Amino acid sequence: MPLVSFEPPACDLRLLKTKNVPLRRTGHENDDLWKHLGCFLPRIPQVAYLRECRSRACRDGLCGAVPREARALVHAGVGRWPRKLLDECGGLNVTLVSIESAAFYRSRRCPAVRATRDVAVPYPTHFRAADEAELARHVERVRAARRPRLATHVAGLHRHGRSSGFRRLVHEQCVRDSRCDSIVHEGRLNLTDATILDAYESSEFCLQPEGDTATRQAWFDAMLSGCVPVFFADCADFSRPLLFEHLYAPFLPPYFSRVGYGPGPWAVVLNASRVHVEPDYLVSSLAAVPPERRTAMRDTILAFLPGLQYAEAKMPNDAAALYRNLIS
Question: In order of start, what are the domains of the chain with their CATH numbers?
Answer without folding.
Answer: 13-98 (no CATH), 132-308 (3.40.50)
